[in-house]
Amino acid sequence: MRTEEILAAIGTGLWSWDSSSGTVSLDAEAARLLGLPAEPVVRPGEEVRPRFHPADWEEIDGVVSFAIAEDTVAEARMRIVDEDGTVVRTVRTRSKPVPVDSPGRHTYVLMGILQEVAQPPETIASHTPLTGDWRRSREAFLLDAGRALAEAGSTAEVLRVAGSLSMPGFSPDGLAVFGVSGDHLTVVGHHGHNIGAEKPFIDMPLETDYPAAEVVRTGQAIYLSSPEEYRKRFPATWPLARDFGRRSWAFLPLVSSGHTTGAWMAGFRHSVAFSPDERSVLTTVARMLAQALTRAGAAETERELSLGLQKAMMPSLGPGVDGLAIAARYVPTGGGLQVGGDWYDVIALPNGRIALAIGDVQGHDVRAAGLMGQLRIALRAYAAEGHRPDAVLSRASRFLSGLTDAYEPADGEDGSDATRFATCLYAEAAPETGTLDIARAGHPDPVVISVDGTAVIRQTAGGLPLGIETDADYPTTRVVLGPGETIMLCTDGLIETGGHDMATGWTRLRPVLEKPTEDLEELADALVQAVHGPGSHYTTGPLVDRREDDIAVLVLRREAVRTRKPPGRRSAMTIAQAEPERIAAARQQVRELLHDWADAEQVDSAELMVSEMSTNVLVHTDGDALLLAEVTGVRGERRLRVEVADASDELPHKRRPGEMASSGRGLVLMEMLADAWGVDPRGEGKSIWFELYESEDPPELGRSAS
Fold it and tell me: Using CA atoms, how far apart are residues 450 and 630, in angstroms rounded to an integer?
């Protein structure tokens, strides 16, 4: 005896439902239980579905979805009805959903049994759910849907999540989200439609006789359970909806902050009665969808605004300048904005030179970004007028002070941060000579990278940050770049981000700056990665406060002249009569030039002689001292030459000071410590110099200098 005959003898039939093809296979007993002729048959799902009570059918869909998710058997009781809708029997089904691979769709084959059971009283059957899984499945669905919609960061992601939702018991076949633009209804996005099918709905007046338009006008949901109901209520737009082949529709308002911002349409290929439970699920999803779309829209608007501000405020470096190569980076890491208070600029000047500006306005909020934009424009205007660097910063400080004085706090602000200041470094560069005249307003010093890769912090004179005093002075320092040398300007974010101070931040950056590279773009990227890339997590500083900061970097290199001479390094600085403290900076500059010198005692000697030479100029002349230090040769055989020039024609004389004398030892020290030294008269003034040789066998160039 066959299995089917045994099962039929106990009133049990076999059935399977293929969701991909929509067909139902029944054996003779299963067909009899469904009110069909008692013979094996394969029927379309549309013919079999009316045999089940509508409420039970919608419920079994949710049970199957839950069984697929939990990999269990779907079990439920279902009422079988005749053509008049009268319940004729109740069957129990135990079925196993087997997933089937289908591109872009979640399909399955439901295989199981149908067995007649005793029919419960009609009063109970019509009001009591036949299974206990629907509500549990609904709650799990809403939790998952809320989580997925909350994580969506853009409108496209929200629509993608909404399109993938599988609602318990009545999953829609197609979705559409409508928005409002003026007095027109527009399609924000859709899912489950063929490309181009949305064209009739893209732009229609709100007065249109269309369900979504009426939902927006009234704020009330519309449920259409059948094509007949749709055609009766909205005859004008029914021809547009008819071609989609759906049987039921739900149109719900999207409400955000008490205002209807659009409508959501869910279309079904099967009939849906829209019971109270089903409407509750749809209403909850619509609320979550409206909130997700509002968040995503606000985030996209902020991103577009921030990117627009960044593009408008950050300059284009242009095609470059003959003799100079420039690279720049801007990384807005503070405050969550795409633009902050840091900026850089490259300005073409009327005299054929270029100006480099880099700065940082206090704060990371919108006001800091606004002040930055205004200050950058003001700097450009003062530079275009032809002012020297000190005058440009003086005028910019007065300008920023006026802006902050006129600031009126908005409602709710206490006004404690009305006064804002900004740091800035402004340099005027001459491409043909490599000279940069630098004025600095409370900003970090620049770094000069020699041809051999040595990076040295170039100490420059400076004044107060912009905006603190209206009549602040900003002295100018001249830095000369040799062929192939590079200067790096940055904001403090590059140095101090990650719990670093100025000292430890410089220690972190120095290896990056000294790594050989011919491409300035690679150098700029490496600097940012050292601070803001994956490797930065292993180079955090000692400070507890590890807040990030905006970063601006500007790198300029004087193009190298092809030569067979070994690369060298040099430094030049002016020591003014009114700034004797600059002698300490000169000593530090020479020590950094010799950071890898073989003999540490020679480094101490060089520092001592620089101090004596510079002090001699300030004490015995009325002018400034110009110091030039240069290291040439290959490592191990290098030569240090230091010159200190002044405008006085009076030559120094070597004396024999007594034990208690307070002066007169400068030349004596040079004679004792230097490998070579001398005094060279010039047309106007003189130059006193000394040389140190790293090797005991000095280069010929060094010997001839004496």
Answer: 10
